[in-house]
Amino acid sequence: MKREKEVTIYDLARIMKISPATVSRGLKNHPAIKMETKNKIQELAKELGYRSNNFASNLRQQKTHTIGVIVHELNSNFITSVLAGIEKVTTESGYDLIIGHSSETSKKEAANANNLFHKRVDGLLASLAYDTESLQHYDPFLKKGIPVVFFDRVDKDTPATKVVIDNYAAGYAATKHLIDEGCKRIAHITASLKRNVYNERLQGYKQALNDNALCYKEELVIINDLSEHASIEAADTIASMNPMPDGIFITNDFCAAVVMQTLKEKGIRIPEDIAVVGFNNDVISKIVEPRLTTINYPGIKIGEAAALKLVEQLRAPHEHHEPEMVFVDAELIVRKSSLKKK
């Protein structure tokens, strides 16, 4: 099928017998153009299927009014809420989003970064994959002065603004709560320690044990990918330990829910035999039985804070913006899964 020729402002001007400049101003709702003329221009444009040429306009302005976002997964309540926070701020600021998904691999993360760089995004928001070590794929942005803000999973040595929670304090609070409930042999299920979020939560767990005269034991720390299969395996491992742990701090609510279900199927009572604390305050934490004690990780606030910091830099491109670490508050939410004391 033959493609129709694009309608231009010159076509509209010729039909209406006015100047192209008047058409252009009318389409942009310029106050200098009479309302009657504006309405006629816009009605004709709609009738003929006129589309504004944002591409040409962007080339002239050296801006695309787009922001790139790289996330490590999409099948996550936390990431969904982060994206909602980002979208709220960027829409209000007049930016569109292009989202890249690394699927937890540094190779795909690097490909996404390269793609977004060549799409000429005005700025970039990124959260790192499990196995990302080198951040060289972000160098082209930094060298060009294109602002980059990292969120959630970050690298502390990268010279860019980062938006996080205090993962160390959250890990400490989760572990201390289990200790306060009488737990003395506490297991910890976590993911790749290359990432700040998991490493810092582990350090908080260790410190809480130390401050309460409990020994850190490597065999009680299980590191996996937090998937359903890995969570079932972790639960099997914990159930086979002798003596069995009396508490578990798990750095992901989905993993915690699967672990709890698997343990219950083995006749292990929660929290009487094992108390459980999760992380994120995902919807599943309120559905699983017993309801899951967790750390509230406010994804929407993380997304809003990261996007605000990026937009702030985009609005003042010639000013020096010192890299900063922005902390968003997180808190322990106590529910039945951890309450061993009646």
TrEMBL record:
Claim: Transcription is one of the keywords in the record: yes
Coiled-coil portions:
none
GO molecular-function term, one example from the UniProt record: DNA binding
CDD domains in the record, alphabetically? HTH_LacI (cd01392), PBP1_LacI_sugar_binding-like (cd06267)
Could you tell me which InterPro entries the record lists for this protein? HTH_LacI, LacI/GalR-like_sensor, Lambda_DNA-bd_dom_sf, Peripla_BP_I
Task: Please list the residue ranges annotated as the HTH lacI-type domain.
Answer: 7-61
Pfam families in alphabetical order: LacI, Peripla_BP_3
Which keywords describe this protein according to UniProt? Answer: DNA-binding, Transcription, Transcription regulation
Work out whether the entry's keyword set contains Transcription.
Answer: yes
SMART domains, alphabetized = HTH_LACI
Source domain of life is Bacteria
PANTHER family per UniProt: HTH-TYPE TRANSCRIPTIONAL REGULATOR GALS (PTHR30146:SF109), LACI-RELATED TRANSCRIPTIONAL REPRESSOR (PTHR30146)
Spell out the protein name for this chain: LacI family DNA-binding transcriptional regulator
Origin organism of this chain?
A: Danxiaibacter flavus
